[in-house]
Amino acid sequence: MDVTNLQVGMIAHLQWKSKLSDFFYGVEELTLADVPDHTHCDFGKLLYGTVMQEFSDFSELSTLERVHKEVHEDIKQFIQMPLEARKGAAGKQALEQFKKKCDNLVAMMERLEAKAKLK
């Protein structure tokens, strides 16, 4: 596996943390059209293209797949959240939970990358 593709996926998901923060504070506008499906983003293409087969022995694979899908769903829900809710406690909590989930996803990707380098 080309770990460069995996690194691109990690960077893209970290950038979403920044994008959602900017969206939260009104610096950036986002629509649902800006959010690719979890199977069509760079990492999703890699995950469903080769990773699932090549790393079927990776113990976190099902968790990685689930969390990756949840990250995309969370982004969509956050974008659809009414402005009042987004600016209030619910929005702040949703943003913080998203950031933690995104960090968890990237940590799993890093472990997968380390395993890929050993192959």
Fold topology:
Elements: H1 3-24, H2 42-54, H3 61-80, H4 83-87, H5 89-118
Helix pairs in contact: 1-2, 1-5, 3-5
Protein name: Chemoreceptor zinc-binding domain-containing protein
InterPro entries: Chemoreceptor_zinc-bind_dom
Domain Chemoreceptor zinc-binding: 13-78
Walk me through the structure.
InterPro entries: Chemoreceptor_zinc-bind_dom. It holds the Pfam family CZB. Keywords: Receptor. Residues 13-78 form the Chemoreceptor zinc-binding domain. The protein is mainly alpha-helical and 119 residues long. The protein has a single domain (3-118), classed as Four Helix Bundle (Hemerythrin (Met), subunit A) (Up-down Bundle), CATH 1.20.120. Helices cover 76% and strands 0% of the residues. It has helices spanning 3-24, 42-54, 61-80, 83-87, 89-118.
Structure summary:
The protein has 119 residues and is mainly α. Helices cover 76% and strands 0% of the residues. It has a single domain, classed as Four Helix Bundle (Hemerythrin (Met), subunit A).
Euclidean distance between termini CA atoms: 9 Å
Q: List low-confidence stretches.
A: none
Mean pLDDT: 89
CATH class: Mainly Alpha
Proportion of helical residues: over 70%
Order of helices and strands: HHHHH
Radius of gyration: 15 Å
Essential attributes:
mainly alpha; 119 residues; receptor; Four Helix Bundle (Hemerythrin (Met), subunit A)
